Amino acid sequence: MERAIAHMDLDTFFVSCERLKNSVLEKQPVIIGGGDRGVVASCSYEVRKFGVRSAMPIKMALRLCPEAKVIKGDMEYYSNMSHLVTEVIQEKVPVLEKASIDEFYLDLSGMDQFFGCFQWTNEIADAVQKNTGLPISFALSTNKTVSKIGTCESKPTGRLEVRAPHIQNFLNPLSIKKIPMVGTETFNLFSRLGVKTIQTLSEMPVEVLHQLIGKNGTVLWKKAHGIDDTPVVPYSERKSISTEDTFSEDTIDVHQIRSILSGMVEKLAYQLRQEKWLTSTVTVKIRYSNFDTETKQCKVPYTSADHTLLRAVLELFHKVYTRRMRIRLIGIRFTGLVHGSHQMDLFEDTEELISLYQTMDRIKNRFGTSSVGRASGFLK
């Protein structure tokens, strides 16, 4: 049975959310970000034509498009809208993967015998727009790679089907940058070799690609031929990362516990960023010396930032720790995970803070997770 995989992407999601609140912003140049010293988290198509892109310093973006309106992002609002879209889609498809806060993969394989897959995907997109007011683009094909590329090519608010016999003709004229796994470094490498289109890449021997970039060369060769067997992984809020610490001696030293929680949060947040996750739910657990166990959780805007998560964790700890009794164990769990960029949640942060996170992560990558961190996390 031929697979039918749809990729859906909410168009300029943050901007579209703001336009729902304020219709005056329709067709206006809009930048979502964190003020003059922040970065662009999202921007409208009206701004992009001036060369403005995500992750660009806002000062630079305003030099390129001085008339753009800068709006401070509201991640809690965007998170709620993302959950609403997810609920609408989940009701209508057998298998849904939430790839990020604003994009989804749908496995509709086998549904042609009941209902045309393209017509069905159209109706899902219509339902999203009707129930949420958000514009959405999609492409339908036989695998995730082709459908994702198709969505990018169909934007804004495009709807495209790429059937199996037409996949290679669809891919051939496109830049190799359109392949999801091709970053700037890989693109520059192949550009120096004169390889800029997917057709040229597909005509290269797979052995040559393997020599150039290792095992990823084989994967890239397959993608250039429209081959991708990656499954659609069902979305589940149960995905989580967590850590616990059982004390060698029960303690009532709140200062020490706060320090330990700080170190725990920093390590888990680093793991989130390395695996490209954002979390939307924080849970704190404590176990008293008599083995009574209590937990408390809260929703947060999708994030992977240490300081945001630490604030939530410490607030939860002081809410859950209600007895003047020694503590035997503390634990933290992050759930409601979706794939996404660390920069999406940094609306209040400066370029310097973003740079600090990136630098600390590079140090941890090279020297280990305990090589650098907040001073509060080392106070044991």
From TrEMBL:
Q: Does the keyword Lipid metabolism apply?
A: no
- Tell me where in or outside the cell this protein is found: Cytoplasm
Which GO-annotated molecular functions does the record name?
damaged DNA binding; DNA-directed DNA polymerase activity; magnesium ion binding
Q: Which organism is it from?
A: Epilithonimonas zeae
**Known role:** Poorly processive, error-prone DNA polymerase involved in untargeted mutagenesis. Copies undamaged DNA at stalled replication forks, which arise in vivo from mismatched or misaligned primer ends. These misaligned primers can be extended by PolIV. Exhibits no 3'-5' exonuclease (proofreading) activity. May be involved in translesional synthesis, in conjunction with the beta clamp from PolIII.
Cite the cofactor comment.
Binds 2 magnesium ions per subunit.
Q: Which reaction does it catalyse?
A: DNA(n) + a 2'-deoxyribonucleoside 5'-triphosphate = DNA(n+1) + diphosphate
Which Gene3D superfamilies does the UniProt entry name for this protein?
A: 3.30.70.270, 3.40.1170.60, 5' to 3' exonuclease, C-terminal subdomain, DNA polymerase, Y-family, little finger domain
The reply to whether DNA-binding figures as a keyword in the UniProt entry is yes
- The entry's keywords: Cytoplasm, DNA damage, DNA repair, DNA replication, DNA-binding, DNA-directed DNA polymerase, Magnesium, Metal-binding, Mutator protein, Nucleotidyltransferase, Transferase
Q: Which top-level group of life is the source organism from?
A: Bacteria
Q: Quaternary structure?
A: Monomer.
Cofactor dependence: Mg(2+)
UmuC domain: residues covered:
5-183
Q: What is its EC number?
A: 2.7.7.7
What is the protein's name according to its record? DNA polymerase IV
**Matching HAMAP family:** DNApol_IV
- Enzyme class, one word? transferase
Record family assignment: Belongs to the DNA polymerase type-Y family.
